[in-house]
């Protein structure tokens, strides 16, 4: 006989019984994302230790409790509805950076990408193509984030992750091949949580790299609304299209278009801003309007770059 799904209260009881620390029930998801919109989620758990992370995952899997990993929430939009999810966040033991011999750099998945790019530059490693991108290295690899020049996966040699292969929860380490990633895309079938990333790149003059980083960040500030609540680019660029998605949206005359508390940025049309206490519903409806208008004008189906959850 199929096991019945647990109720909310039963799930909370099962999670309390783990006796793990750092658990918040009925968490406000708007506090966990850069776009600052969204309703409550059943549980938020920060795993400071690998053993705690494994215990929570095992508990969820055994009891058919749905869960999702979050980094810094700079590429996620949660719905306004109550979401029956356990949100897993990597804490203390996953927040580190190590430099080893042979141009290898090892980062815990919770380490911030912004800090990483500068720390690497100080030692002569050039990751300036990844300058100015908020969030964690783990989140960055999961979406192969980057610039028009390169994505982070171009620099990733190996990753460690919590795997669910054969129903067993254990950490695996694998080398990456080009088949594992593409434009804003990374996929390992049995991956549950990315924990550790080994990156590699050549060395060059550190002052030159630091100058490149400063110039990329300056340019980003000029062309993107970096100090406004947003989730970065809302839609992916279209492979093979000579124009960026921002340019397509701009050509539809949508810059500055407002729906409720949400607005298409005046600076960059692929950014949706939460400029006035927007609900997630406003942001989502605005994204649908953009999709419809772009489809009408260019016969192009836009795909979300932002992970929309609970809609
Ligand atoms: C102002 C601004 C500018 C931005 N500029 C850029 C840019 O130039 N280029 C670009 O590519 N992006 C950009 N972004 C988007 C975003 O910063 C990146 O996608 C970032 O890498 C996401 O990292 P995160 O830690 O916030 O991930 P989150 O948003 O928390 O998560 C993103 C996805 O990764 C998954 N995930 C996160 N961590 C893990 C993990 N350890 N294991 C398994 N899954 C995980 C989540 O489940 C989710 O599906 C920008 C965003 C903002 C707000």
Quick summary of this structure?
The chain has 311 residues and is an alpha+beta fold. The protein contains seven helices and 16 strands.
Computed over alpha carbons, the radius of gyration is 20 Å
CATH overall fold name of the largest domain: Uridine Diphospho-n-acetylenolpyruvylglucosamine Reductase, domain 3
Strand order of the largest sheet: 6-7-12-8-9
Runs with pLDDT <50, length 5+? none
Tally of DSSP helical segments? 7
Mean pLDDT across residues: 96
For this structure, what is the CATH class of the largest domain? Alpha Beta
Bound molecules: flavin-adenine dinucleotide
Structural class by sheet pairing and helices: alpha+beta
- Please indicate the percent range of residues in DSSP E strands (runs of 2 or more): 15-25%
Order of helices and strands: HEEHEEEEEHHEEEEEHHEEEHE
Please give the number of β-strands: 16
Coarse shape: globular
Keywords:
311 residues, alpha+beta, Uridine Diphospho-n-acetylenolpyruvylglucosamine Reductase, domain 2, Uridine Diphospho-n-acetylenolpyruvylglucosamine Reductase, domain 3, Uridine Diphospho-n-acetylenolpyruvylglucosamine Reductase, domain 1, 3 domains, 4-stranded mixed β-sheet, 7 helices, 24% strand, binds flavin-adenine dinucleotide
């Amino acid at each position: 006989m199929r096991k019945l799904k647990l109720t909310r209260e039963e799930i909370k009881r099962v999670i309390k019984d783990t006796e793990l620390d750092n658990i918040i029930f009925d968490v406000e998801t708007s506090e966990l994302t850069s776009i600052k919109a969204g309703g409550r989620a059943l549980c938020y758990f920060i795993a400071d230790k690998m053993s705690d992370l494994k215990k929570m995952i095992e508990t969820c899997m055994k009891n058919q409790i749905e869960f999702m990993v979050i980094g810094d929430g700079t590429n996620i939009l949660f719905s306004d509805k109550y979401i029956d999810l356990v949100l897993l966040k990597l804490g203390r033991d996953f927040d580190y950076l190590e430099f080893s011999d042979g141009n290898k750099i090892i980062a815990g998945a919770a380490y911030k990408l912004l800090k990483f790019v500068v720390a690497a530059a100080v030692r002569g490693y050039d990751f300036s193509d990844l300058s100015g991108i908020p969030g964690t290295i783990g989140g960055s690899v999961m979406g192969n984030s980057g610039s028009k020049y390169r994505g982070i996966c171009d620099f990733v040699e190996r990753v460690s992750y919590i795997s669910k292969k054969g129903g067993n929860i254990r950490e695996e380490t694998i080398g990456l091949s080009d088949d594992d990633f593409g434009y804003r895309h990374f996929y390992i079938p049995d991956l549950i949580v990315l924990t550790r990333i080994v990156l590699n790149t050549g060395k060059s003059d550190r002052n030159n790299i630091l100058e490149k980083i400063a110039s990329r960040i300056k340019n980003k500030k000029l062309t993107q609304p970096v100090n406004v609540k947003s989730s970065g680019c809302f839609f992916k660029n279209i492979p093979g299209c000579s124009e960026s998605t921002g340019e397509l949206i701009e050509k539809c005359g949508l810059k500055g278009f407002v729906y409720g508390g949400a607005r298409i940025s005046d600076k960059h049309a692929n950014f949706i801003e939460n400029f006035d206490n927007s609900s997630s519903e406003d942001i989502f409806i605005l994204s649908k309007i953009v999709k419809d208008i772009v489809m009408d004008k260019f016969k192009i189906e836009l795909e979300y770059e932002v992970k929309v959850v609970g809609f």
